[in-house]
Amino acid sequence: MHRGKQSIELTNPVYIIGHASVVGSKEGEGPLGKLFDMVGSDDMFGAESWEEAESTLQKDAVYLAVKKAGLNVEDLDLIYAGDLLGQSIASAFGIKEYAIPLMGVFGACSTCGETLLLGSMAVAGGFANKVACVTSSHFASAEKEFRYPLAYGSQRPLSATWTVTGSGAFVLASQQKNGGETEDQCDQQMNACKCGKPDAMIVGGTIGRVVDFGLKDSFNMGACMAPAAADTIFNHFQDFQRTPEDYDKIITGDLGNVGQKILIDLLREKGFDISQKHMDCGMEIFNPDKQDTHAGGSGCGCCASTLSALILRNIKEGEWKRVLFVPTGAWFSKTSYNEGKAVPAIAHAVVIEQV
After folding, report:
1. Rounded CA separation 82/160 (Å)
2. Contact in structure between 303 and 221 (CB atoms under 8 Å)
């Protein structure tokens, strides 16, 4: 169902029946290190290039998510996938061997939210029974794509975020799992869940629109993306006639500590105070006191791996009953940056609830 100005509401919920996170060594050393399904011993993941390493992230994440759902890859009807690299080569090369129908998606760092919304609509509309949604980013491949090669040794300002080396994959279905084991017998780490209970369900969301405040600093993604996050969250409240109190958490993708302050201020101007509800994946994945990540984490893999490792775990365990998951993305390229263009942004909101 279309809801309000730019939102959707699913008449029947779509279940997240499996999910997995694969990250690099730096992410494994952070606060969420023990929660990830797989942590690489080095960020090459046995590959010969950074781009190939990122492809490996997606391939492994999809495989693990499918196995944890108690399925085989062949059981999937469709995959929605995207990344930050030109022509989405991390996705195309990473999951080509699965030979599953693929819809390539680009939403910059908001890709996780976009794939989940598209996947949910496909399942809810009866166009697919089981869908995988996956995205990734890699620190080295992203720096090479958007800024400077690592060997250049450029100095990073304090407003800069650190692109997460990681991937998150999610399996969506219209029905809950079928299995015989109890939840206590179910080993969610690396093994298939047969307890019959999905991890969470998607019940709706708000599709973002491009917001451009004229900011041109590609080393301050938080400031560039915060206006888009504020716009989407505000319109979500309007479309669903809700307030921050209707959510246990409102979770943005990768605004970092700079963007968080801007987001809270912008929404206060619109009459909503989310300061007690807000959490940012970029501020959760690294330890600012021990890791030199400056403003926090970013990249497609930031919110995707955090959603799988932390957010869905807290929902399934009952700590949170409803969250608004809002991945944020900045749309720019080397061409637009060198031509002096501003950095427009977008954010998509997904309503995830406990089953």
Report:
1. 23
2. no
Confidence of residue 192 (pLDDT cuts 50, 70, 90): very low
Domain 14-185 and domain 200-353, same fold? Reply is yes
Give 142-172 pLDDT, tens digit per residue.
877 776 666 666 777 677 788 899 999 999 9
Q: What is the largest CA-CA distance in the chain?
A: 59
Q: Where are the domains of the chain?
A: 14-185, 200-353
Q: Is it true that domain 200-353 has CATH number 3.40.47.40?
A: yes
* Whole-number average pLDDT of the chain: 91
Which residues have CB under 8 Å from 337's CB, separation 6+? 146, 216, 218, 343
Contact between residue 309 and residue 195 where contact means Cβ atoms under 8 Å apart: no
Question: Domain 14-185: what homologous superfamily?
Answer: Stage V sporulation protein AD (3.40.47.40)
- Between the alpha carbon of residue 119 and those of residues 15, 123, 165, 177, 285, the distances in Å are 11, 6, 24, 18, 25
Q: Name the 3-class secondary structure at 330.
A: strand
- Written as one string, the DSSP assignment of 174-239 is SS-----S-GGG--TTTS---SS--SEEEEEEE----B------TT-HHHHHHHHHHHHHHHHHHH
Per-residue pLDDT tens for 81-113? 999 998 899 999 999 999 999 999 999 999 999
| Paired tokens of 311 | 């957010």
